Amino acid sequence: PGEQEPFDPSKKTLVLLGTGWGSTTMLKNLDTTNFNVVVVSPRNYFLFTPLLPSCTVGTLENRSIMEPVRLLMRHKKREVKFLEASCIDIDVDSKQLLLERRSSSDAKLTGKGGADEEPLKLNYDYLVVGVGGTVNTFGTPGVEEHACFLKEMDDARQIRRRLMDSVEKASFDDITEAERDRLLHMVVVGGGPTGIEYAGELHDFLEDDLSKWYPELVDRVRITLVEALPNVLPAFDKKLISFTQDTFKENNISILTRTMVKEVKDKTFIVQNPDGSRSEIPYGLLVWATGIKAQPITNKIRQKFPEIQTNGRGLLVDEYLRVKGAKDIWAIGDCALSSYAPLAQVASQQGKWLARKFNHLSNDDLITDLFLQMNAKTRPFKYSSQGSLAYIGSEKAIADLPFFNRNITAGGVATFWFWKSAYLSELLSLRNRTRVAIDWANRWLYGRDLSRE
Ligand code: NAD
After folding, report:
1. Is the pLDDT of residue 127 over 90?
2. Contact 116, 137 (CB under 8 A)
């Protein structure tokens, strides 16, 4: 395999895996003067995931929430190298990574050219793993083949296409009424924040836009959210759960709780009802939002330390975010297992914290063992929660906010404006903020774009 040389042999090479919340925030805060910094990710952009559900129905355009990683790298003190590749293996003894070029993995999927490109080898001195997670289907049959996910931009694109496909197909006169009802049944599996926010956006799309352009169909569209537990949003305050359930009821979104999806077929899915019986339900679009599991590379790293890394959900880290059992490897974000939930906020705080540690330690020219130095010089990472926010549709949002050690809960239209301004200010760049604000204004003026891409 080809060798990827560090660009200044006198400096240590720091490799960041991923361009999600953890790695991007780390990169933003990192002083690159003292390291060869290499970022490796199959995605050459950062994605502002909290607004991804808005892209599934065209409330926002896709590029408005994407930030090219090279724009972030441009202002660094020393040049940062970016490689559009997936890390597929690691040799922890020789400190070497094996990378598969993005073009090569794409080629394998499409079967067109480039699949035989050689993997690259990349040496590291320090490695930060921020590869996030991948969708968890819990091995449910048919999900991979027939369901849409809501994790990456390609997923949002696919949902938008499938949604418009279902609606256009349902507009033909020569189909049966049962087929029309099937096509117009939109199903969301999973009552976590992702499923709830998507159902909310879908409702807005029906209410604001489909009702205008497809008046004969809109009354027949049904949205169903299926959740295995007794209620949705288990991590939120009880009052907010009831507020969400009431809002969904007003918006004609059915919630089936204590109901578990057991199989997804081409046009129907099978559920286990609360009484243990099973039913087969027809659907036109099914979005699977049941949480995440570890990426293949996370498992590869885990397997290098089988005695210590015994949790299949990710990499166990200590309070300094060091991967337990490993040397010179840190993990941040959803791939790191600590006492914190897999949240964007946690990942970004971890990225910032670790960048500061590296900035501080890199002033010392005699770094021999960064691991040992950390214990002596630094306080452990501690997450400080800024609270949870979620959009639930019809211009309403819910918020669970910690203030002076008390939890303030709020739901409604004012919270929606708070949600809007909070997300707008959190967006990484002015460029993205402007784009999102323009999209919101466009939607208000002209409605959402219905064209099928
Ligand atoms: P989640 O894990 O929060 O929720 C998934 C839900 O799917 C669970 O309630 C589970 O009971 C249900 N489920 C699993 N299998 C099922 C089946 N076969 N049939 C029916 N229901 C099934 O997942 P998420 O919403 O993707 O969130 C992942 C993480 O990201 C969470 O930690 C969440 O808090 C966080 N997140 C937060 C926000 C926010 O704060 N606004 C937004 C998105 C995600």
Report:
1. yes
2. no
Q: pLDDT tens digit string along 173-219?
A: 999 999 999 999 999 999 999 999 999 999 999 999 999 999 999 99
User: Could you tell me the strand order of the sheet in which 12-17 lies?
Assistant: 2-4, 120-123, 96-101, 80-91, 35-41, 12-17, 126-129, 329-331
CB 440 within 8 A of CB 420: yes
- DSSP H or E run through 402: strand 396-403
Cα 353 from Cα 348, distance rounded (Å): 9
For ligand 1, the distance from its centroid to the CA atom of residue 260, given in whole angstroms, is 14
User: Can you tell me which residue has the tokens 């290098």?
Assistant: 304
pLDDT at 192: 96
Q: How far apart, in Å, are the Cα atoms of 74 and each of 27, 46, 68, 82?
A: 11, 14, 10, 11
The residues pairing with 86 across neighbouring beta strands, listed in sequence order, are 100
Q: Which of 52, 55, 148, 194 to mutate to test the pocket of ligand 1 (most atoms within 8 A of CB)?
A: 194
Match 């699977």 to its residue by tokens.
288
Ordered by start, the domain boundaries in the chain are 2-135+292-377, 143-290+387-446
DSSP assigned state of 369: -
| Per-residue confidence band for 379, with pLDDT thresholds at 50, 70 and 90 | confident
Amino acid at 202: L
CA of residue 294 to ligand 1 center, whole Å: 15
Contacts of 175 (CB under 8 A, 6+ apart): 169, 183
Ligand 1 mutation target, pool 227, 346, 391, most atoms within 8 A of CB: 227
| Mean pLDDT confidence for 331-358 | 94
Contacts 24+ apart (CB under 8 A), 428-435: 428/24, 428/28, 428/46, 428/48, 428/67, 428/72, 429/67, 429/71, 431/67, 431/71, 432/48, 432/64, 432/65, 432/66, 432/67, 435/61, 435/63, 435/64
Is residue 438 lining ligand 1, measured as CB closer than 6 Å? Answer: no
Assign a CATH topology to domain 2-135+292-377.
Answer: FAD/NAD(P)-binding domain (3.50.50)
CATH class of 143-290+387-446: alpha beta
Are the C-beta atoms of 412 and 246 separated by less than 8 Å?
no
Residue whose pair of structure tokens reads 């501690």 in the numeric block: 382
- Write the ipTM: 0.97
